């Protein structure tokens, strides 16, 4: 059966790799939503060349606003006539000491990282109920542990983890809802040191496909008994005790 996915923030990194892994399965058509129109159009062109123009489309959208969310989902309805999977991946970060973090910056981070996923989930609900589909929220290990200056980002991701299990209770059994909390994912392909890799119990820093593969699994029928859960994909770092000697 033909499946359809809407993935926010999918012009790069984890989102783009998730688009790719779903298209590689041959089961999905995918709508990319991203605020970066140049990257989004480039991704559409490349992926259309590989998988066919009917399998992938792109829309420029700021998912922090209700009007943009409605425009995005209306596009999905028009192009693909339905929806099987929603991946709430779009996120922003404004690292700042709390004494210097402006209310405007705080509100923007929460608007994109937390309000956006709620708005998209609410708007997509009729489509997902009709297909008995699922939602996967891309959370973060910052929902569980923090670095200095990450108050807005950590709060937004903690809220997203809680929104995940709340939605799972409200939307089940028709719609399953889960989240993934990535740790260090080298999305930009930056050079890494031996220590960068060795400090991870898994022996390496993560790559976008590590997370994308989990998204594909959680959206599959094999995960039909899984809902309301947060899956940590971090190479074991949140289980590692670290003390300064």
Q: What would the keywords be for this entry?
A:
Rossmann fold, 45% helix, 7-stranded parallel beta sheet, alpha/beta, 245 residues, globular
Q: What can you tell me about this protein's structure?
A:
This protein has 245 residues and is α/β, with parallel strands linked by helices. It has one domain (3-235): Rossmann fold (3-Layer(aba) Sandwich). The chain is built from seven helices and seven strands; from the N terminus they run βαβαβαβαβαβααβ. Strands 3-2-1-4-5-6-7 form a seven-stranded parallel beta sheet, sandwiched between helices. β1 (3-8), α1 and β2 form a beta-alpha-beta unit. The radius of gyration is 18 Å and the shape is globular. The chain starts with a strand and ends in a 12-residue tail after the last strand.
């Amino acid at each position: 059966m033909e499946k359809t996915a809407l993935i926010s923030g999918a012009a790069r990194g984890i989102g783009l790799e998730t688009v790719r892994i779903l298209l590689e399965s041959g089961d999905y058509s995918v709508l990319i939503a991203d605020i970066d129109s140049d990257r989004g159009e480039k991704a559409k062109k490349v992926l259309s060349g590989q998988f066919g123009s009917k399998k992938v489309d792109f829309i420029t959208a700021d998912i922090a606003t209700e009007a943009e969310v409605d425009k995005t989902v209306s596009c999905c309805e028009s192009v693909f006539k339905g929806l099987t999977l929603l991946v709430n991946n779009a996120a922003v970060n404004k690292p700042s000491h709390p004494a210097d973090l402006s209310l405007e910056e705080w509100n923007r981070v929460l608007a994109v990282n937390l309000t956006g996923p709620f708005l998209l989930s609410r708007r997509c609900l009729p489509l997902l109920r009709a297909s008995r589909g699922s939602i996967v929220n891309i959370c973060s290990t910052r929902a569980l542990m923090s670095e200095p200056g990450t108050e807005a980002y950590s709060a937004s991701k903690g809220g997203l983890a809680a929104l995940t299990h709340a939605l799972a209770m409200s939307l089940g059994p028709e719609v399953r809802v889960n989240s993934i909390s990535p740790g260090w994912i080298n999305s930009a392909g930056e050079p890494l040191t031996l220590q960068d890799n060795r400090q991870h119990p898994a022996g390496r820093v993560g790559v976008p496909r590590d997370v994308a593969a989990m998204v594909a699994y959680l959206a599959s029928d094999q995960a039909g008994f899984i809902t309301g859960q947060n899956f940590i994909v971090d190479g074991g770092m949140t289980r590692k005790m670290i003390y300064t000697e």
